[in-house]
Design a protein that fits this description.
- This protein is α/β, with parallel strands linked by helices.
- The chain folds into 3 domains: 80 residues, OB fold (Dihydrolipoamide Acetyltransferase, E2P), CATH 2.40.50; 161 residues, P-loop containing nucleotide triphosphate hydrolases (Rossmann fold, 3-Layer(aba) Sandwich); 80 residues, Probable gtpase engc, domain 3 (Ribonucleotide Reductase Protein R1, domain 1, Orthogonal Bundle).
- It has 9 helices and 13 strands.
- The strands form 3 sheets. A 6-stranded mixed sheet has the order 10-9-8-11-13-12, sandwiched between helices.
- Helix 2 packs parallel to helix 3, helix 2 crosses helix 6 and helix 2 packs across helix 9.
- It is flat.
- It binds guanosine-5'-triphosphate and zinc ion.
- The site of guanosine-5'-triphosphate has 17 residues, from helix 5.
- Guanosine-5'-triphosphate binds next to helix 5.
Length: 353
């Protein structure tokens, strides 16, 4: 018998960490309402009280793509009892929260960074996505959509420019008027989970529709379609593609704030990391020191000023996040102390009375 959950990306050697509960994967997460798929079907789900109160960090709460342990309540509803460890998580700095990471999707194999070749085209933004995806240790794939809006020369030029900053990530040109999506499909293999990111209007939903085709719309992913059978991006959701791969669309990720993994910057700006190693002084700030390899490269044109400024901006942002996180931890710790001492006082008072 084919294990139903393998069609939802369950790795063959997966060990269920909580065998007392049924294994399920989160298909949708909207605030505290979830939809999960288990061997026995699709359920609406909510977090169990225990899980709700035991998670200190909001990023530990289940997200789209997570493997969870559920207890089935009736034919349609279930409780999520446990959120299992993730093989990977695509996260960004949380919007409006101080130095908190927000998990956008869990257990991801590849992130498709979608950018339109219209006014959406922007190398700095691509670098930001690349840094953060790599900071999460996930493979990035860049898809330049709306190729029909550029001349053939412009397309080639832009693809080359993107290759120049991609540091080894694959770059694919795409248009909705193309008959097939074979080139993209190569990276979306059976049982692998991909996430689409890109700013609003980049062409993500259009691409999801193309990759989903029509046959799978009749299955679980019907909920991803409106009456006209079109996928619409209102919230994150995991769908099955025609070729057996799984795809999560993230709507309008306009803000894609960096968290604090320096690996992302090092991998994306490898040439700058290498140059830094040749500076005369260790700890060179690359601003005014003599014998600075970065300044030399900027002067003779080996390093483009745009790229250097982008690197500096992203580096600063990441440093800020790191410093804010240290501060937040200190504050949390101090608050914890105040709370514990108040608890002890109250216990003592109770003991005396
Ligand atoms: N010319 C052209 N237009 C495209 C192409 N792909 C998408 N579009 C158009 O671009 C607009 C935005 O596309 P969507 O797919 O809705 O963009 P999105 O990234 O899902 O946007 P959000 O849902 O806001 O995150 C739509 O009007 C599409 O028809 C393409 O390859 N060529
Ligand atoms: Zn230097």
């Amino acid at each position: 018998m084919i294990n139903h959950l393998t069609a939802w990306g369950l790795p063959t050697n997966y060990q269920n960490p909580t065998p007392e509960f049924q294994l399920a994967r989160v298909l949708k997460a909207h605030k505290s309402n979830y939809e999960v798929v288990a061997e026995s079907g699709i359920f609406k789900a909510t977090l169990s009280g225990k899980l709700l109160h035991s998670t200190e960090d909001p990023s530990d709460n289940p997200q789209v793509g997570d493997w969870v342990g559920i207890m089935i309540f009736d034919e349609q509803t279930a409780f999520i009892m446990a959120c299992h460890p993730r093989s990977s998580a695509l996260q960004r700095a949380s919007v409006g929260a101080f130095a908190q990471a927000q998990v956008l999707a869990a257990n991801i194999d590849v992130v498709l960074i979608v950018q339109g070749m219209d006014h959406n085209y922007n190398l700095n933004r691509l670098e930001r996505y690349l840094v953060q995806v790599r900071a999460c240790a996930i493979e990035p794939l860049i898809i330049l959509t709306k190729a029909d809006l550029c001349s053939a020369e412009e397309c080639t030029e832009r693809k080359e420019a993107v290759r120049g900053i991609a540091n080894g990530a694959r770059v694919i040109l795409h248009s909705m008027f193309q008959e097939d999506s074979e080139e993209i499909n190569q990276y979306l293999s059976q049982g692998k989970t991909a996430v689409l990111v890109g700013s609003s209007g980049a062409g993500k939903s259009t691409l999801v529709n193309l990759l989903m085709g029509t046959t799978h719309m009749a299955t679980a992913s019907i909920s991803a379609s409106n009456a006209k059978g079109r996928h619409t991006t209102s919230h994150r959701e995991l769908v099955q593609l025609q070729n057996g791969a799984l795809l999560i669309d993230t709507p309008g990720t306009r803000e894609f704030g960096l968290t604090d993994s320096p690996e992302g910057i090092e991998m994306t700006f490898e040439e700058i990391s290498q140059l830094s190693g040749s500076c005369k002084f260790r700890g060179c700030t690359h601003e005014h020191e003599p014998g600075c390899a970065v300044q030399d490269a900027l002067e003779d044109g080996r390093l483009e000023a745009r790229r250097w400024h982008s690197y500096q901006k992203l580096h600063r942002e990441q440093d800020h996040y790191g410093m804010d996180k240290v501060q937040r931890r200190k504050k949390d710790k101090a608050l914890g102390k105040v709370y514990r001492s108040a608890q002890n006082d109250s216990r003592r008072r109770k003991g005396r009375s």
